[in-house]
Specification:
With 217 residues, this protein is mainly alpha-helical. The chain is built from four helices and three strands. The protein has a three-stranded antiparallel beta sheet with strand order 1-3-2. The chain is globular. The structure holds heme C (4 copies).
């Protein structure tokens, strides 16, 4: 009897703790954790042979001057671009451009992590560093990218105006404009700068909330 009386408050505290901390509730951005780049796998200082003595984080991807790409959406890019040809989900889709090409400049599993700032002779690819998160060059078995979002098919695809907010109540799932077309790209689902929800997602994958932002199912 005594053990039951002692057990109950402990259980209650545990239940309260899981509700107050750590439970992600899809649709309630107040419950989405925030983990900035420094504490995420996108802090490339975590990788032997790539880490910098000065501990800079942004420099693997961005530079304040002399960016490697020109034009409006170049985001001051500083990492060597992938030179691979990709197999797309749909054979009619364009090759990756813009921010998706930026992601694939590491996630192709070919371009070295330490090829940045004008250096193209880096030696450390995610593969040689023993990592398993390469998307690779065959994108035919991945969710389609480089595709126009069907904005006038409400029976199957939700109005982008209804996309819900993400971490810190910032942008959630979003379309990326390339060649004046609103498209689905890597950055539609992923937030390269924040890993609070894991896998750098904009909104929770729990209950397939991410998928249901776009797919009316
Ligand atoms: C692993 C690569 C990577 C790292 C590291 C990185 N970024 Fe980015 N950043 C990107 C990519 C890719 C884009 C373009 C795609 C997008 O906007 O989602 C971008 C876009 C941006 C933009 C323009 C769009 C926006 O979100 O406002 C800013 C500003 C920016 N980054 C700042 C930073 C700063 C500051 C740091 C360091 C604290 C940093 N980034 C670290 C990859 C990176
Ligand atoms: C400068 C190189 C670089 C660029 C550019 C880059 N990444 Fe990464 N990314 C990495 C590395 C390195 C890891 C960690 C790999 C590991 O630990 O297995 C990683 C991990 C990830 C992960 C897994 C995170 C986790 O929780 O395990 C995702 C998802 C991801 N990246 C998506 C993206 C997307 C989307 C873009 C473009 C918007 C991008 N990355 C751009 C290097 C990069
Ligand atoms: C339609 C949404 C969507 C798009 C578009 C998308 N991803 Fe993902 N990605 C996800 C989800 C969801 C996960 C987590 C998968 C899981 O939990 O099994 C993920 C996981 C990942 C991982 C981690 C995989 C691992 O094995 O740990 C990487 C790396 C990644 N994505 C990179 C990319 C890159 C690069 C692109 C563009 C070429 C891209 N993603 C496009 C939704 C997407
Ligand atoms: C940013 C919006 C968006 C998100 C988020 C998204 N999708 Fe998609 N998805 C699309 C679009 C657009 C297409 C391609 C439509 C076309 O061109 O036929 C597509 C295609 C697909 C297809 C292939 C359909 C076919 O006919 O070949 C599947 C399956 C799918 N998505 C499942 C998912 C799942 C599962 C998730 C969550 C992990 C997800 N999607 C997240 C927009 C999205």
């Amino acid at each position: 009897m005594r053990s039951v009386i002692r057990f109950t408050p402990v259980l209650l505290v545990m239940v309260l703790a899981t509700t107050a901390f750590g439970q992600i509730i899809p649709g309630d951005p107040g419950t989405y954790p925030s983990v900035s780049i420094a504490g995420s796998p996108h802090n490339l200082n975590n990788f032997p042979g790539v880490e910098r003595a000065d501990g800079q984080i942004c420099i693997f991807c961005h530079t304040p001057h002399n960016a490697l790409l020109a034009g409006e959406a170049n985001v001051l890019w500083n990492h060597a671009e992938t030179g691979e040809t990709f197999t797309m989900y749909s054979s009619t889709a364009d090759q990756p451009e813009g921010s998706s090409k930026m992601c694939l400049s590491c996630h192709d599993g070919v371009t070295a992590l330490d090829s940045y700032g004008g250096t193209t002779t880096g030696g450390t690819t995610p593969l040689t560093a023993g990592l398993s998160t390469n998307v690779g060059t065959d994108l035919s078995d991945d969710h389609p990218i480089c595709i126009a979002y069907p904005t006038s098919d409400p029976a199957n695809y939700n109005d982008p105006g209804t996309f819900a907010p993400g971490i810190n109540s910032g942008p959630g799932v979003r379309l990326v404009q390339i060649n004046s077309v609103d498209r689905v790209e890597c950055a539609s689902c992923h937030n390269v700068h924040n890993n609070g929800l894991g896998d750098f997602l904009h909104v929770p994958i729990q209950e397939s909330y991410l998928c249901l932002q776009c797919h009316n199912k």
